[in-house]
Amino acid sequence: MGESLARDLAEAYREVRPEVTLLIVPATELDAQALIAAEIEPAGSGFRSPLGGVTLVPAMAAAAAPPTLSAAQLVAVLSGEVEDWAQVGGSPGPITVVTRESESEAERLITQRFGLGVAPPTARVAPGWAASRALISGTDGAIGVLPSPEIDATLRVLSTSLSIMIGLEARAANEPTGVVRDWLAWAQSPAGQSVVAERHIPLVAP
Predict the structure, then answer these.
(1) If you write DSSP's letter for every residue of 172-201 in order, what string do you get?
(2) Hey, what CATH class is 54-164 in?
(3) Residue 84's beta-bridge partner residues?
(4) Sequence spans of domains, the chain
(5) DSSP state, residue 35
(6) Residues 16-37: tens digit of each pLDDT
(7) N or C: which end of the chain has fewer CB within 10 A?
(8) For residue 22, what pLDDT is reported?
(9) What is the distance, to the nearest Å, from the Cα of residue 54 to the centroid of all Cα atoms in its chain?
(10) CB neighbours of 87 closer than 8 A, spacing ≥ 6?
(11) Is 46 left (phi over 0), alpha (psi -120 to 50) or beta?
């Protein structure tokens, strides 16, 4: 979920320290010593350091004319309780829900934060955010939830009132040292947070 923020910070830090290369990899590929941005949860073992936040937003294809949904209607749509857009005030047509993999951190967060149940059996499963964008923008009547930095010109956000903000943090098995520690300190500095604010939510509003 926080990969885009980690990449933004790593790329910007390269301009500050050109001799340093930070490799950002998906959480499934991390070993115990590696670092990843992820949702802030209650304190547990290991090192955790806040970096910023991101907004989860429901989206459809840019060419779509989505109805104005209440929060309850959005949950009904994403849970498959409503199967046709006409049932929630839209133009008649089947609803296709696009989800991430059921075991992914992204889908767990979306399900938890939007109060969803099991994904409908007709849902289209996407293996990543790029695939999610392609399915939502290329499928008539499709809808899905993405982090706001993943929204591009092919998509239309349904309503900002239906969005949900989550915190993002760096995690490691042990407190980082050396280059990674320096990077995290920079990320939390005014310079780093100005990079966060470009596409994400900074720790302190500028």
Answers:
(1) ESS---HHHHHHHHHHTSHHHHHHHHHHSB
(2) alpha beta
(3) 94
(4) 3-53+167-199, 54-164
(5) -
(6) 999 988 877 655 433 322 333 3
(7) C
(8) 80
(9) 7
(10) none
(11) left
